[in-house]
Amino acid sequence: MAIEQSDSPTYQCLFCGDAITSGGLDPCALQLIAKFDHPRSEQKEQAFYCHIACLQSRASEQPDCFYITDPDFPTVGETESQP
Ligand SMILES: [Zn+2]
Predict the structure, then answer these.
(1) Residue 79 forms part of a structural domain
(2) What residues pair up with 23 in beta bridges, in sequence order?
(3) How confident is the model over 17-29, as pLDDT tens digits?
């Protein structure tokens, strides 16, 4: 859940329930797409927030499968600026 405050929003981790302090890869957003195998017009979306560490600790995938944690994994801006 994102909680709007006067200056910046505070995010609550989906897994541990704690507030997420900005830093490193946190906060992370999980964009849930329901009916993913249906046409786009029939899908529903909802965002959840979490600590990257909480997601990694609860996933059946090994932590090293989260390539996004590699410091060399490109940002969206870096990817978009590729020719
Ligand atoms: Zn957490």
Answers:
(1) no
(2) 26
(3) 999 999 999 999 9
Determine, yes or no, domain membership for 25: yes
Report if pTM > 0.85.
no
Give distance in angstroms: CA of 19 to centre of ligand 1.
8
Distance 38 CA to ligand 1 centre (A): 31
Q: What is the domain count for the chain?
A: 1
Q: The tokens 């946190």 sit on which residue?
A: 26
* Residue 50 belongs to some domain of the structure: yes
Q: How far is the CA of 9 from the centre of ligand 1 (A)?
A: 16
- Indicate whether 83 belongs to any domain: no
Q: State mean pLDDT over 71-83.
A: 92
